[in-house]
Specification:
222 residues; alpha+beta; Phenylalanyl-tRNA Synthetase, Chain B, domain 3; 4-stranded mixed β-sheet; 7 helices; 35% helix
């Protein structure tokens, strides 16, 4: 059986014009059992986290922002009006958490796999329940007052925010909060993974990050 190929999500016309290097790259992972991603990680995954914790100490942790891929996300943050000194990029936030907590601590399998992919490649990956998506994923600007998600109590978005969306709703802020109803749960059987690629981030790194996530979630030994 051939390996699944990541797909590039759609972009609204204003995104293509103003941010031509921004891409959403999407891949799906089929879980062996419903909700298996919420269990504790197997020993191999926890061991990998400990090894990564040892790699990010002292000068390496402080200097991560100057490495090519993290630096590319910092540049993009400024391009879209975010201050990376205040709103940390995903890799910087993870490394800061590692310094505060003394290591990359294990949560559940999904959390650990997403973290490993981020630390290994510098590329952030998010996961949503594939059954909660209406059509393909893409990037557009929010409309004034539209809800984040489809829940009756969803909070309203201002206009002009970059959002990850499907065919009928905004499902999450780019680099930010996801709508509650699209988060994975105990009944989730298939996960939609998406990575954000910006100028300066090689496609190989994005594909590797998604492969790490899919391979980790589809394993049978948990």
């Amino acid at each position: 059986m051939s390996e699944p190929v990541p797909e590039v999500g759609w972009r609204a016309s204003e995104i293509e014009q103003e941010l031509p290097q921004l891409q959403l790259v999407v891949e799906r992972a089929r879980l062996a059992r419903a909700g298996a991603h919420r269990r504790n990680s197997p020993a191999g995954v926890q061991r990998r986290l400990r090894m990564l914790s040892d790699r990010f100490k002292g000068a390496r942790a402080v200097g991560v922002r100057s490495e090519p891929v993290p630096a590319a996300y910092r540049v993009f943050y400024r391009q879209i009006g975010l201050d990376p000194e205040v709103a940390h990029t995903p890799i910087e936030a993870a490394v800061l958490e590692r310094m505060l907590r003394g290591g990359f601590l294990s949560g559940n399998l999904l959390e650990d796999i997403l973290l490993i992919a981020l630390i290994d490649t510098g590329v952030p990956v998010w996961a949503v329940d594939a059954d909660a998506i209406d059509g393909d994923l893409g990037v557009r600007l929010s409309r004034a007052g539209e809800p984040l998600g489809r829940a009756p109590d969803a909070w309203s978005l201002p206009s002009g925010r970059l959002v990850v969306a499907d065919g009928s709703a905004a499902l999450g802020l780019l680099f930010g909060q996801l709508a509650k109803e699209c988060e994975t749960g105990t009944r989730t059987r298939e996960v939609a993974l998406f990575a954000v690629q910006v100028s300066g981030v090689p496609t190989l790194f994005v594909e590797e990050a998604l492969w790490i996530c899919r391979n980790g979630l589809e394993q049978e030994d948990y």
